[in-house]
Amino acid sequence: MFTAYRRLLYAPLSREIHSFVRTRSASLPEGFKFFPEFLSPTEQRILLSAALSKLDSTETKQARKQRRDFLASHPQRHCAIEDVFLPDAYYNFQEGHYDGVIRHYREMHLSFWPEDQNPGLSFILARLQGLYPTSNIQTHILHLSSVGEILGHVDNIEASGTWILGVSLGAARVLRMESTSNPEDSFEVLLPSGSVYLQMDSVRYDYNHSVLKAGRFLGCEIKTGQRVSIMVRDRKEVPTLNS
Hints:
Helix content: 10-25%
Distance between the termini: 34 Å
Number of helices: 6
Order of helices and strands: HHEEHHEEHEEEEEHEEEE
C-alpha cells in the first residue's frame, strides 16, 4: 500500500523540493528526506485537532474551562490551518525546557491516538506509518507558541534509536541543520504545514539542529505563529543477556 512513499525515501532532491531548501551543495545528506506537501489541508486539521485535544487533556480544569468559554463566544471557522489554534494566552506554555533547548512550549509523550473520536485519523496515521523505516516507535507532541523556538542541539543518543520523523502543523518555520564536524556542511529547510521530514542514522547525531523563531527564507518573510510538531522516533534497542 505504501510502496510509492517508500520509494521516495531514496529519491534524489527534486526541483519542487529545491524551493523549500537552502543548501551549499546540490543535494541533501543521504540520511535526510523531505516531503513538503505530504498532508492535505483536511488531513492537517484532523491531525492538529487531535494533537491539541491530547495536549489540552493534560492541563488543569480551569485552563480547559477558559478555552471552552472562549470558543463559546468566538466560533471557529477554520478557514486556514492557523485558525485551529486559540490565542497564545489560552494555553499554558512553559517558558523553558529542563535542558534549555526549547522555549515557550507545551509537550507530551503520546501513548495512543483517539482514533475512534476523530474520523479520518486512522487513515492519516496509516499513511505516516508507510514512511517509518521500522515499526517499534514512540511519539512526542510539541506545541510551540507564537514566540517559541528550539535552540541548536544534537539529539541524545540514549533517548531513541536511529531515525526521527517530524510532521509540521501550523505556522511555517525554518529547520537549520549544521554538521558538528564540518562548518561548510549546513542546510536549511522551510517546514510548511503538512510537510514531513525524516532524519536517519548520521544525520540524527552528527548535525546540530534548531527550529528558528522568525526571519527570512529565500527572500520571503517567515511570520510568527503557533505550530505543533508530531515527532515519531524508533525505540532504542536494549541488548539482551543472550545478545
